């Protein structure tokens, strides 16, 4: 596990991903959520322009105001997003990716590409696992028979 001092010094010390207290693991927990991935993508699509909170929410179907607020607060705290408040009534809040955030977008784009390339294979594996589970339930005495999946 790395220490806060070792990280601050930029010593390149690696953590232990399997340790729940590892800073690397904690960062991956934060950036590995669907809302973080969507927010970074939406902001990257707008870069170098800023995006207002309401517009960002429109670009992210299904996100609640609270979840978007929590996500943006975390991204801002981590230095991935900059936040600017325009004094108005009500205040207008704008967001944009920092250079560090843009570098995260590059990594997330690779993950999205991988997901798109392999989604059909993953779907087939899920269907096979579901079918196997259904067959296992019907073979067990006293289990309720499930309708087959199509």
How would you portray this structure in words?
The protein is mainly alpha-helical and 150 residues long. The protein is 59% helix and 9% strand. The chain contains 6 helices and 3 strands. Strands 1-3-2 form a 3-stranded antiparallel β-sheet. Strand 2 and strand 3 (92-97) form a beta hairpin. The longest helix has 41 residues, at 99-139. Mean pLDDT is 86; it is low at 1-9.
Helical amount: 55-70%
Number of H/I helices: 6
What radius of gyration results from the CA coordinates?
21 Å
Series of secondary-structure elements, N-terminal to C-terminal: HHHEHHEEH
Number of separate strands: 3
Q: Mean pLDDT, as a whole number?
A: 86
Note poorly predicted spans: 1-9
Structural class: mainly alpha
Strand content: 5-15%
For the terminal residues, how far apart are their CA atoms? 47 Å
How would you characterize the largest beta sheet?
3 strands, antiparallel
Q: Which geometry do the CA atoms define?
A: elongated
Q: Order of strands in the sheet with the most strands?
A: 1-3-2
In short:
This protein has about 150 residues and is mostly helical.
Entry keywords:
150 residues, mainly alpha, three-stranded antiparallel β-sheet, 6 helices, 9% strand, disordered N terminus
Secondary structure layout:
Layout: H1 4-8, H2 23-31, H3 34-46, E1 51-52, H4 53-59, H5 65-77, E2 81-86, E3 92-97, H6 99-139
Antiparallel strand pairs: 1-3, 2-3
